[in-house]
Please model this.
Amino acid sequence: MEHYTRASFSPTQNVGFMLIRARKQIVTEMDAAFSHLGVTGAQVGILLAMQRGVASTPIELSKRLSVDTGLMTRMLDKLERQGLLERARSADDRRVVNLAMTQKGRQVAAEMPAIAAVVLDAKLKKFTKAEFEELDRLLQKFIGV
Model:
C-alpha cells in the first residue's frame, strides 16, 4: 500500500519528518532536565544500559543504543572524565574494552528514571491511556520490534 505519492509528498508533512521533529523536542527537553547532573539525554541511555546490565562494552552500547562507534567513544570519554564510569582492557582479549560504573555513576543513574519519566509524561499529558498504548504499539511496529 502506498501512503505517499510523488504529488502528495510534503517535506514537512510526512512520518519521517514528524518523527525527527518529535525526537528533537524530546532530546532538547531531556538535555535540559539532566543538565544539573552534567549529562545529556544521550548519555542517560549509556548509564542506564550499564546500570541494568544490558551492556558492558562500547560495542554493545553502540548496538543497543543505535549510536555509531565514534560518537559512542566521545560520549564515553566525557562520562569517564566526569568520573561516572571507568574503562579497562579485558584480560582475555586486549581488543575488548570493559566498562564499569563508578559509585558516582551509580548514584547519578539512580536518579535518571524519575527525571526521564517526568519529561516523557509531560510530552504525553494530552494522551489517554489507550492513545499512549496505541502510539507505543504503532512505533514498535514502525521500527520492526
Q: What stands out?
A: The domain at 15-143 is CATH 1.10.10.10 (Arc Repressor Mutant, subunit A). The longest strand covers residues 85-89.
